[in-house]
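We emphasize that the prediction below concerns an isolated chain of 148 residues; any contacts that depend on oligomerization or on bound cofactors are therefore not represented. The input was used exactly as deposited, without trimming of termini.
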Amino acid sequence: MNRPLSHWLCTPPSPLTVLAALALGLAAVGWSSSSTPQAPPTTQSMPMVLNNGGTADSNGRMVAVTGTDITGASVLYLVDTEKMRLAVYAAASTGSYQGVRLVGARRIELDMELNGYNDKSEYPYGELEKLFAEKGLLSLPAEKPRGQ
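Result of the prediction step, given as a token string:
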């Protein structure tokens, strides 16, 4: 006996029919996703979390380090490793100062040429250099004549 279409639309489906429809739907989704070409996985850097709650990350050119200063303001240090530049920003949301401000910036290529500055180490650079040279672990460059 053939039932009219209105009867099929008005009666709830049996649990077996629902289960079969779900299985068919999941199979279709699985088949379509397996046939779709997938993009190769990309490498993504994960920021390093520091002890004080700050983070550090880089992209091959820029290094960014965040932290908190003694006043509680958030601080961002940016280093451009290609142009050898440093910029420091502070951000605060309370008190008389609110917002983001540039604390300081400078070219750092000459800083990187220093053998020491305000160095409170046990062995200053010059002393270590002599010790290594005496043990044959380092060859000292010939001194340049004055005036050159």
